[in-house]
Amino acid sequence: MMGGTYLAVVLFSLAGMVILDARLKLFFWLAPVRAAVVTAAGLVFFTSWDLAGISLGIFFRGESAFMTGIEVAPELPLEELFFLTFLSYLTMNLFQLAHRRLSTGRLQPDMQAVRR
Predict the structure, then answer these.
(1) Which domain holds residue 108?
(2) Considering the entire predicted model, what is its pTM?
C-alpha cells in the first residue's frame, strides 16, 4: 500500500524546483535548451556513476516498502532516475540563485535582462 511513496515525494520535490525556477527564472525559464542539455548531462553522468558502482558491488538496491519495486537495470530502481533529475535541477537552481545574488545582490531576476 505504501509502494510508490518515495517516488511521490521525489516528484513533489521536483515540482517544487519547477515552481521555484518559474518564479525566479533560474534555469529552464532562463534558458530552456541549455537547461535541458545540462540536466541530461547530469542525469547521464550520475546514472553512469551509479551503474559503475553497482557493477563494482559498491551500490545496491535496498528493500523498502516505500519503493515501487520497479528496476530499470539490475539494482537500479526507477526512483533513482527521478532523484538524479531532481538532484541536477536542485544544483542548477541553487547555482543560478547564488550567482545572481553574488553578482547583483538580488534574488529576483532583472526582468529587462530576462526579456533579451
Answers:
(1) 5-115
(2) 0.85
**Distance in angstroms (rounded) separating the CA atoms of residues 93 and 52:** 27
The Cα-based distances of 34 to 20, 31, 44, 63 in angstroms read 18, 6, 15, 37
The three-state DSSP-derived secondary structure of the chain is CCCCHHHHHHHHHHHHHHHHHHHHCCCCCCCHHHHHHHHHHHHHHHHHHHHHHHHCCCCCCCCCCCCCCCEEECCEEHHHHHHHHHHHHHHHHHHHHHHHHHHHCCCCCCHHHHHC
Q: What pLDDT is stored for residue 1 in this prediction?
A: 60
